[in-house]
Amino acid sequence: MTPFRLAFATILGKDLRTELRTLQSLPAMALFAVTTFVIFHFALDRNSLSGSLAAGVLWTTVLFAAVLGINRLFVAEREQGGFDAMRLAPIDRTALFAAKAAALLVYLVALELVVVPVFAVFFLDSASALPPLVPVLLLADLGLAATGTVVSSMAVNSRARDLLAPLVLLPLIVPLMIAATGASEPLLAVGGPGYHRFGSWLAVLGLYDLVFLLVGYAVFDFLVED
Amino acid sequence: MKPSDGTDGPALYVAGLCREFGERTALDGVDFTLSAGESLVVLGPNGAGKTTLLRTLATLLRPSAGDVRVLGCRLPDEAWKAHGRIGFLGHEPLLYRDLSGRENLHFHARLHGIRDTAAEARIAELLAAVGMERRADERVVELSAGMRQRLAICRCVLHEPELLLLDEPDSSLDAEGRELAAGLIGPGRGRARVLVSHDPERALPGADRALLLGRDGSVVHEGRAEDLDLSAARAATAGTAI
Lengths: 226, 242
Hints:
The complex is a heterodimer.
Chain A: H1 4-22, H2 26-44, H3 51-72, H4 75-79, H5 82-88, H6 94-123, H7 130-155, H8 161-187, H9 198-223
Helix pairs in contact in A: 1-6, 2-3, 2-6, 3-6, 3-7, 3-8, 6-7, 7-8, 7-9, 8-9
Chain B: E1 12-21, E2 24-34, E3 39-43, H1 50-57, E4 65-70, E5 73-75, H2 79-82, E6 86-89, H3 101-111, H4 116-129, H5 145-157, E7 163-167, H6 175-185, E8 192-196, H7 200-203, E9 209-213, E10 219-224, H8 230-238
Parallel strand pairs in B: 3-8, 3-9, 6-7, 7-8
Antiparallel strand pairs in B: 1-2, 1-4, 4-5, 9-10
Helix pairs in contact in B: 3-4, 3-5, 5-6
């Protein structure tokens, strides 16, 4: 059996190398997010946002941009035989789940490095909320990566995968979005960041991540069977 | 010859194998045994279940019924024990289009736990064997079907498998490619080999056993290759009565 770490690093390295070479997911995700901010900017007709509205705009945009990446996560495996190759290799299939979730996490972090500053420019009066927003973003990204990987592996074998992935993903992601917006709302309040129930929301995000990482670990083997 | 449990015994033991896709039966009670080092040719018309048989033996499809043991591992429960010991060459090359041939082979070598230094030497040796040294750093998407097939053959034997499962490996190769490929996946190299083919004239020489499947996925003939009448094989492969 190939060591887990070697299989994980091999699959993750392949995914990141392919994305760097083809730029099939990240530019589309970033362009979508920036365009959505522009639309919100004009649709809401405001120069600055705060509190729950700001949190809602940020997380809605990040979520729908993430869906673009989630839809494409297993396309190469499906269309170019990667699933078969990995099923023939002496690897723990959990390594595939972990590597795909890690690749999606990298995409989301890279996306946010671009779009969160753009969000701040469009909607925030100061950038003081951004540093405390980092743990919220990271915990929410981890949950999105775990859930998105499970859903994407289910949807990829369907002819209607572009439709199926969001339909299955969005209801599952509701608790994550409630916690992410709950944690972000006081940080984006007028007059600078506040920390009301901040720790509780971070704990909810952490718990969500743990649950969906365990679900992925438990079911992934069955999802990639014939 | 029914094998005892464990890894000893024939390379393949198949008894009563059935595989269904919904209402359709692709394989219907297939029986055969293949000893280690032997070569089996599988013949049959389109839709006879040859590819389904090969994918089942490769552990990529679950049998619907029957006792199937690959390298001593009972499918599907012990399929994981056979992973890494099978070389599978199907209709798709299982290569990523946006990686180069060499990158693809390194990817597969790592998945099979081959260390980088050993992989480097093995990949260079295989690329030379199929005449692909000069084109190995080009992206797969830029290569012709024949060149992709040469790389796929390298991928298939990279980890020195005990069992080769080959689905029409010559399909997109030119004469030179066929000759070079024979050096890597041809019969008589001490490992068990199952070859699916539409061409009995080319496939039967060198084979130890032959399996002829009918259009309904049942076995029409199973036995020594030399006992199979070539004209009957030709007729069955063409889909006409034998």
